[in-house]
Specification:
three-stranded antiparallel β-sheet, 2 helices, 3 strands, flat, 101 residues, 2 domains, alpha+beta
């Protein structure tokens, strides 16, 4: 278990269940399942960790591109990206149909 001032090596959580530990009188310990396996983490520490903005990255902020910078190369990249997104959506839909979702 990481110390309160250290970040754990694995942050992604799949599930969490609360339980009382007999060794700690007033601190609640939570069992979390991470990519590394089950771990016991102090509930207060976990709450502080998950509330930090730098631990859970936000989506990249989109930059506005002015019209005068939209040359042929820009439109070619957009066309390729739109085709890739379309293929990805079609593939996901096909997989959903095959899996019966």
């Amino acid at each position: 278990m990481p110390l309160p001032n250290e970040l754990p090596t694995q942050v992604p959580m799949l599930s969490a269940t609360a339980s009382r530990s007999s060794s700690t009188s007033d601190r609640e310990v939570i069992k979390v399942v991470t990519t590394a396996g089950p771990q016991s983490v102090d509930k207060e520490f976990l709450t502080q960790l998950l509330s930090r903005k730098d631990v859970i990255p936000a989506r990249k902020r989109r930059d506005f591109i002015p019209n005068d910078m939209k040359d042929d190369q820009y439109w070619e990249r957009r066309r390729k990206n739109n085709l890739a997104a379309k293929r990805s959506r079609e593939k996901r839909r096909f997989n959903d149909i095959v899996l019966g979702k």
